[in-house]
User: Fold Acyl-CoA thioesterase from Candidatus Butyricicoccus avistercoris.
Amino acid sequence: MSTYQHKVQYYETDRMGITHHSNYIRWMEEARTDFLDKIGFNYAEMEAKGLSSPVIGVKCDYKASTTFDDIVEIKAYVLSCTSAKFVVGYDMKKDDKVVFKGESTHCFLDNSGKIIRLQKELPHFYDVLCKNQQENAV
Assistant:
């Protein structure tokens, strides 16, 4: 599990003074990128090798609101991993109170858009993702 912090910016709030719902998905991406960096799989390096990891699904469950200047702690972790795709879970908290729970599902593609089977073509990455999933299943 990886922890990432985001400080809510003024431009991320709406006319009511609360964070617009679309920003939570952006924060998921920030936390996921940070998580992958921490486990040794930097997005820029993967893209330089001709790999991409598109989002193929998103689930969001908004529990409470956040406002300008709040510090949101985001935990990112692997919920599931198969050879074809993986799912990242996100728990967002403000002052130890859950404000958001989400998931994003991803696959990996090569330059031609062909799906890459992680277990076969990126076995070390597959193993690291599966290990993270097992650690968070406890």
